[in-house]
């Protein structure tokens, strides 16, 4: 028999926040289940510095990484198209290349795993008689909302959730407050909501939904997703919590020393607040100023990954994050948007890093005592696996839900009184107080203990026999059975 181990193909949509967890999932399938994994990468700029560092990292040598041809969408959508539209169009345009690449593979993969934006590719899996799974690089609560959306009445949604601002009830799960709601829900008759509904319906067609969470983190929501009287009625596909999938220090593109890590080596234990808004998050000019003043006034040590402010869009650099151009001195070292004299006054306690920093190393460093984060789910997982308490500062996508979960349900974070937004700027006094509370005060200790408990529960989920380990093994067994079936069929033919 020629093939001895199943081959799994994973399709990653554009953006570092999408690619990183897919690479980690592929790695886990190889290491834990001895599968062969091919990662198909869709990107608008495959020469981007961070992207090429990431895919060439020795830690991912065990994967076959295939960069699909870059897609130029400029003739299809305008430059003002939303990020979601841009990603959706890029994924759609990549389908022919995906199909021809799979078709030309000597050994056809047994399964295709797609992420949130890749559901259209499930048809390719059908064409080649492959198993098809969805991987949601977010949490089970987000899966619950997505899968339940097609069961909602648009009129009721518009009237009660949007007009009257009532919480959105999801059977067996925490309700979503209007302030935390997803952008798609704000206009149930708009194209974004239709796209969201399609994803919810596609989820039910998958052979399984893998989620970057673990049993003990979201037991209530996972139970609701499995209960026929609650969500299983609409969620036709089984849900497999396989997380946390977070980059370890070894898989980060940094090797050897780095100015940030050298600086951290000289700081006291758990004394530094790390400030970063993910791969593309930006703040307004006014908010950037207030944040600078807040950090300075707190008199605490900090590392701040700074991007030039943008007053119209909070994720403008998402698709180009970490690209060479933005990382150059010319691109980012002009700090005119920071208070005059800020860099000089804070030079003994703070480090400002332009555009991109080695986040896994920073969060794993013993000198880091807190993380002011936009609550992207990868950042959240990276913070938890390193036992770092958070100040939550959600910007877009499902981040407001994540922020509420982290503060109110899990107790591993604090937040400002009002959700930061274009309309409400978080003042320097409140920022100063939050930083002080998380790094220096007693409240920080209590939250740190709680996040360390979660860190241990995450470790337990991942070890041989742990809940996430077993979940992924179930998928692996399905792939093994499918491969065996195909081979027997071929031999019998
Ligand atoms: N990241 C990084 N350095 C940075 C900013 C981000 O390494 O300066 C990584 C971070 O470690 C995480 C990913 O980029 O793995 C961001 O994913 P997340 O889900 O947190 O946010 P998104 O960028 O998707 O909004």
UniProtKB/TrEMBL annotation:
It holds the Pfam family UDPGT. Coiled coil: none annotated. It is an enzyme of class 2 (transferase). Keywords: Glycosyltransferase, Transferase. Gene3D superfamilies: Glycogen Phosphorylase B. Its EC number is 2.4.1.-. It comes from the Eukaryota. One of its GO terms (molecular function) is coniferyl-alcohol glucosyltransferase activity. InterPro entries: UDP_glucos_trans (IPR002213), UDP_glycos_trans_CS (IPR035595). Belongs to the UDP-glycosyltransferase family. PANTHER family: UDP-GLYCOSYLTRANSFERASE 72E1 (PTHR48046:SF7). This is Glycosyltransferase. It comes from Citrus clementina.
